[in-house]
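User: For a reading group we're discussing how well predicted structures match intuition. Take Cytochrome P450. Before you show the prediction, I'll give you the sequence so everyone sees exactly what went in.
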Amino acid sequence: MATVSVLMKRLLQPFTGISEIYNPALSTFLLLLILLLTLVQLLKITRRSSNHLNLPPSPPKLPILGNLHQLLGTLPHRSLKALSERYGPLMFVYCGNSPTLVVSSAELACEMFKTHDIVISNRPKTTPANILLYECQGIGIDPQVWDRSEDFLPNRFFSNPVDCKGQDFQFIPFGAGRRGCPGISFALAAVEYVMANLLYWFDWNLPLGEVEENLDMFEVNGLVVHKKLPLHLVPTLCSPYS
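Assistant: Thanks. Here is the predicted 3D structure of Cytochrome P450, as C-alpha cells, for the group to look at:
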C-alpha cells in the first residue's frame, strides 16, 4: 500500500490541486482499474490476431500466463498428455506470450519431420520448445502405439523392426528430420560399449530381501524425468569363462 501511495503521489505532482485531495484508497482503485483495462485490451488484441489464423485446437488461456497454469505440477509431461487426450494430437498452447505447437502422435510427427520438414527446420531452438518436447521421448510411451507403454519391456524390441535413428516415428529419442541429432552414431556406439562391458563383466541382482514386484517405479521431474527413488543393484564380478 505504501509503494502504491508513493507512486500515485509522484504521478499527481504535475497537476495543481489534485495532490492536495489525494486519497490512498482511491489511488489504489484507479491503479487496479488501469491494470484491468490494460489486460482486457491485450486479450482483445490477442483474440483478434488469432481469428485470422487457421490454428489447431487450443485450451483456454489467461492473459500474460497463456497456458502455463495448465502445465504446472511435478510432471509437466503428464499434464501435456492429459491436454492432448482432450484437444487432440496436434494442439496450440501459449507458454506465456510464446505460441507453441505441440505434436503428440507418431503419425503427425512423421508428417512434420519428413513431409514438411523444410518449413520447421529453420526455426530456432527455444527453451519452451525444449521443455515441451522432452526430446521427443513422450511419443515412446504413447499407449496408442505401444502395448503396456508404461512398463519396462526391453524384449519388445528384439523382433520389432522399429529403429531409433529417426525413420520410425514411434520411437525417436534423437529427434528426426533435418533437426535430428547429428551425433546419433557416436552416442549409440558409446552407450552400447558401456552397457556391453557392464553386462559382460558383472552379474546384477537386487539387494537381499527385495523383489522385483515391489520396486517403486514412480517418477519425478528434473533436468530429465527420472525415478523418484534410485534403483539399487548389487554387482558381482563374474568370469566370462565360467
